[in-house]
Each structure stands twice: as structure tokens, then as C-alpha cells.
Amino acid sequence: MTLTIEFCEARAKEARDEADSASLDNVRERALRSQAAWQAMADRAIGIAKTRALKLLEDKQALDRETLEESQMGSDHGSE
To answer: How far apart are CA 17 and CA 19, in angstroms?
Structure first.
């Protein structure tokens, strides 16, 4: 199961809300630990998404360069 950024952020907010409304210290601390864990998962998911997007962009740019070079080579051969 893949956790989405939105899901993790929602769980972090729920944990934060629970911590804010907790009257017992141990419940508040547990909720804050939960919030930190969910936020860390969301942050990792954001980082992974950014890395994937950057990789896709780099791959597209490389393909575009190759296509341009091939078309230029074809044009050069046609003029001889």
C-alpha cells in the first residue's frame, strides 16, 4: 500500500488536534509522537515525488536533445 502525501498530512493534523485537546500529558505526548511520525512520512513522500518529477523532466530533456540532434543530422545529410 502506498501512502499518499494527503493521507499522511491528514493523519498528522488529526494527531496534532488530538494533542491539542488532550488533558493528560501522556496522551498529548503520544499524539505529538504520532504527529511527528506522520509528518515525517509525508515529508519523505514529498521528497520522493519531487525526485521522480525531476527524473522525468531530465529524461524528457535528454530525449528532446537526442531527437533534435537526430533531426539535425538528417538535415545535414540531405544537403550534401
So the answer is: 5
**Size (the chain), residues:** 80
Domain boundaries, the chain: 5-78
CA distance 53 to 77: 36
Residue 2 CA to residue 67 CA, distance in Å, equals 35
State mean pLDDT over 49-77.
91
57 touches 48 (CB < 8 A): no
Helices (H), the chain: 5-21, 25-78
pLDDT at residue 11 tops 90: yes
